[in-house]
Design brief:
The complex is a heterodimer. By secondary structure, chain A is mainly alpha-helical. In chain A, 78% of the residues lie in helices and 0% in strands. In chain B, a hairpin with a 4-residue loop joins strand 4 and strand 5. The chains are: A mainly alpha, B alpha+beta. Chains A and B meet through helix 2 and helix 4 of A and helix 2 and helix 3 of B.
Chain lengths: 192, 313
């Protein structure tokens, strides 16, 4: 839906993309990515709070949407905003912490999307769960990316940060409360 | 025989995109949709005030294609009216510009408090078509209407110890929504060194495209310093103070390592978080190289002779 909406605006509907269309595409794709990532991260806590197991099926779809928008965001930055100006791209990637954080988050999402199939789950067995815990890091890096690029008005960034802290905090709380033996694995691996 | 001297700050004829190509590109990006958008969202299409100003053409104007009125008046940074780019035009009515007075004070022999009308009366208006480069990496070409700031300063008769000029925007948190949150220190303040303020490029603008300034562009009176990043060109000015010491400035107070007092456009000094090498001219697809002093080096480079501009950024 958001993709259709962005696409329609690129084609000129709903007032188009405004005065600076490339900036609009860049920020909106990034916004959709972090929102879907936070939604994906809220599935597990929601299931635990509500007991609704079927919503787990949404998790992969939401994660893939986050990956899709992050990829669009990355490609718009690379090919439209900077128009493959490699000198600027490399300078950004090596000297600007907010770019590095965003890029690292995207790399993680690529890894997770590539291993999101049932086949990969069977193949990786317990390592799949370990690998996919990287999504917490992707969430942190994504929010850090937004905080670091904000000029002065931190309202939006604060909203994402609060959501993330809440979602990760709930997991941490549950992990610390659950006795080790019930989970049946060493504590250092944490809870999923 | 007339020989046209090439001023370096002006683009060469070969650099100017032919008008047809320029217009076609806008069509591609969004032009054909203005009609559709106008039908869907009539409120967003900004009408000009119709308050035409009397002015004559002034020096230093570029003949680059002007950024359209709609873009200049709907894509603004004016945090008093909101931090989003379209907030200022949407909230423009919240800025009360009548009555308006301007105080000139500080280290000068002839201070005063003027009703806007009296403040403007002695000055004949000129059009100055300047490039505007925002610190965020976008730029426009804007036909301002105004007069040189040095006229005001000469009339104020600065004392021998005056070395800076400080400016202050209106403080009105009851009406200005942005001033009810501490995003910056209010009122917004800016400053120039006296020689920068006296420079003929530095103007006080009261109009845009021959019309009175819309509120979102800093009505009724704003500064325009075209070789510095846009935030130096303070809007809706109520006070001009001759100062002996470097005055505090809003963005510098907020993030001293990111926004210096000088803030001259300089492609070789990156903002700590992003490059300043390129900019997107509003309406263009590809970024273009940012020029030193925003292309006004011939006029202003002397002001900074011997200064390390990486240190005094």
């Amino acid at each position: 839906m958001p993709a259709l909406w962005l696409g329609a605006r690129t084609a000129g509907a709903f007032g188009g993309l405004g005065v600076n269309p490339i900036e609009t595409l860049l920020t909106d794709s990034g916004t959709f990515s972090i929102i879907f990532l936070l939604l994906a991260l809220s599935v597990t806590p929601l299931r635990r709070l509500t007991g609704l197991a079927p919503i787990l099926r949404l998790r992969r779809m939401l994660g893939l949407l986050a990956f899709g928008y992050a990829t669009a965001h990355f490609l718009i930055w690379l090919g439209v905003d900077l128009f493959f100006d490699w000198q600027l791209i490399i300078e950004d990637l090596t000297t600007r912490p907010f770019v590095m954080a965003g890029f690292a988050a995207w790399i993680i999402l690529v890894l997770l999307a590539a291993t999101s199939t049932r086949g990969a789950m069977t193949l990786l067995k317990r390592n799949w769960t370990r690998l996919h815990r990287l999504v917490y890091l992707a969430g942190i890096l994504g929010v850090v990316h937004i905080v670091w690029l904000t000029r002065a008005d931190y309202r939006e960034a604060t909203l994402y940060a609060l959501a993330l802290v809440m979602l990760l905090g709930m997991r941490l709380y549950w992990a610390l409360r659950t006795p080790r033996k019930i989970r049946g694995e060493p504590a250092r691996n944490g809870a999923g | 025989m007339l020989i046209r001297r090439h001023v370096r700050s002006e683009p060469r004829a070969s650099e100017i995109t032919p008008r047809e190509v320029y217009l076609a590109r806008r069509d591609f990006m969004r032009g054909g949709l203005a009609l559709g958008a106008g039908l869907l969202l009539p409120g967003l299409v900004q009408a000009r005030s119709g308050n035409g100003l009397n002015f004559s053409p002034g020096p230093f104007s570029t003949d680059e294609p002007k950024t359209p009125w709609e873009d200049v008046t709907t894509y603004n940074n004016f945090y008093e009216l909101g931090t989003g780019k379209s907030d200022p035009s949407r909230n423009a009515d919240m800025l009360r510009t009548e009555p308006w007075s301007v105080v000139v004070d500080g280290a000068c022999a002839n201070p005063g408090r003027y009703a806007l009308e009296d403040f403007l009366k002695p000055h004949s208006l000129e059009e100055r078509i300047y490039r505007l480069r925002c610190v965020e990496g976008w730029s426009m070409v804007i036909p301002w209407v105004g007069f040189e700031l040095n006229q005001v300063l000469k009339h104020a008769e600065p004392t021998g110890s005056a070395r800076y000029v400080a400016f202050e925007t209106i403080l009105d948190p009851e009406n200005l929504p942005g001033q009810r949150r501490p995003v910056l220190q209010w009122p917004y303040t800016e400053g120039l060194r006296l020689d920068e303020a006296m420079h003929p490029l530095t103007i006080l603008a009261v109009g845009l495209y021959g019309e009175e300034l819309p509120n979102q562009n800093g009505a009724p009176l704003r500064l325009v310093v075209p070789w510095k990043y846009g935030f130096k060109s303070i809007k809706s000015i109520v006070r001009i103070t001759l100062a002996e010491e470097e005055p505090p400035t809003a963005w510098n107070q907020s993030q001293p390592n990111e926004y210096g007092f000088y803030s001259n456009v300089n492609p070789d000094v990156a903002h700590p978080r992003w490059s300043q090498r390129t900019e997107r001219r509003i309406g263009e697809f590809r970024r273009r190289r940012t020029e030193m002093f925003n292309g006004y080096g011939d006029e202003v480079a002397d002001l900074y002779a011997g200064m390390d501009l990486k240190k005094h950024f």
